Amino acid sequence: MSVPVVALIGRPNVGKSALFNRIIGDDEAIVSEEAGTTRDRHFSKAEWNGRAFWLVDTGGLSDDPNAPMDREIRSQVATAVEEADMILFVVDSQQGLHPSDQRIAEMIRTTNKPWMLVANKVDDPQKTDFYDFYRLGAGDPIPVSAQNGKNSGDLLDELVNKLPESIPEDEEALRIAVVGRPNVGKSSFVNRLLGEERLVVSEISGTTRDAIDTPMTYHGRKLIFVDTAGLRRQSKIDDGIEFYSALRSRRAIERANLCVLVIDASEGEFHNQDLTIANMAWDLGRGVIVVVNKWDLVEKDDKATHKFEKKAHEKAPFLKHVPFLFTSALTGQRVSKILDVIQLVDEQSKVRIPTSQVNERLAELLARRQPSQAAGREVKLNYATQVSVAPPTIAFFGNHPDLVEEHYIRFLHNGFRETYPFTGNPLRIVMRRKSGTDRSERGEKAERTADA
């Protein structure tokens, strides 16, 4: 399901960033007494009462629309309003109604987007006069104190009640997010695959801004390709369009069953940002396929593909479990092969190993190597079972799961990969006590380390 976006907007220094931090429970946004501190946007996933949403913090709208920085911020906020499913308009209860508040309210009303008025810096609602704020036409302001958290729970209760209902995805369809940095040829690749110019293609980096759903059928299975805007490093996202392109891409990955990461062969290597995108999909439990596009532009020998993959594996060992496809969207070289690879990765994500076979493999691995023993305590693994698919997850039960060292969990991970490759998919290892009631935090961490 698509996760809704909630945007915080308002004048400078009304406490938007403090409220952002309060809601997400972190100090991700910069908070300062200096007006206009937040110039770029910050966004983070938040959840309340079982409802997840993206929360976006924006720069403050000032009274000087002609200043260059203010023009940029106004453009960013306008994009925030356009993209948001719900707007939280934050005002300063201590300063009272400001003429800029009225102009912002008028701007919001023209969008026909749902919005809520949040009166910040309210330590005692009984001693605060909200009369002037009713002139904004938003009904009762919701009083909060972002600094100490007072009434933030009431705000979130009302917010999640007003969020639009998520639209269920087609459960029968296989969703494939086509992701990658800007201008690597994602749209050209999808167009070549579909045999028609469905998506806009341009030499200008970042032409694709929206995540575009494009369906097709292959061997009786409905596939939905989601062509996303390119993901850049957060520090490079310097305008509202690029910022929301990154947010849309992350949302597309969350909605997808697997991801096709398109990279540019002509650049000669697997970039760190390519790795960031692959890690994002892998950590979310999505299958991953790497498409090395523009392969026709590369001077290569018989071992070129092997060398390219080897360099990628050196940067990220988990990519050893990911299929690479070397293609050219321009010439069509090997593009259609992606469909069979997608089917393979999807099938592998759903492989379920019978418990008897899991324990036979565990016995073989234990015979090869026992877990290290802790001082004064014997560490045993008694049995294991696969507890879920997509991504495949195997739970190991023992007497001291917190004492199983990370290198041994990697040994178990690699040992099972030898027999059950789960091609293109992360394999998660969970360590549990024999009773099955506790899950070790250390085991969870080691699971991530084994996939990395």
The total beta strand count reads 15
**CATH homologous superfamily annotation of the largest domain:** P-loop containing nucleotide triphosphate hydrolases
Biggest β-sheet: strands ordered side by side in the sheet: 2-3-1-4-5-6
What is the CATH top level name of the largest domain? Alpha Beta
Terminal Cα span: 27 Å
* Alpha-carbon Rg, integer: 25 Å
What does this structure look like?
The protein is α/β, with parallel strands linked by helices. It has 3 domains: 5-162, Rossmann fold; 174-349, Rossmann fold (3-Layer(aba) Sandwich); 355-451, GMP Synthetase, Chain A, domain 3 (2-Layer Sandwich), CATH 3.30.300. It is 33% helix and 20% strand. It is built from 12 helices and 15 strands. The chain has a 6-stranded mixed beta sheet, sandwiched between helices. The protein has a 6-stranded mixed beta sheet with strand order 8-9-7-10-11-12, with helices on both faces. Strand 2 (42-48) and strand 3 (51-57) form a beta hairpin. Helix 11 (406-419) crosses helix 12. It starts with a strand and ends with a helix. Mean pLDDT is 80; it is low at 27-41, 197-211, 230-241 and 436-450.
Please specify the SSE layout and strand pairing.
Elements: E1 5-9, H1 16-24, E2 42-48, E3 51-57, H2 68-83, E4 86-92, H3 99-111, E5 115-120, E6 142-143, H4 152-162, E7 174-179, H5 186-194, E8 212-218, E9 221-227, H6 240-255, E10 258-264, H7 272-283, E11 287-293, H8 304-315, E12 324-326, H9 337-349, H10 355-368, E13 381-388, E14 393-398, H11 406-419, E15 428-433, H12 441-451
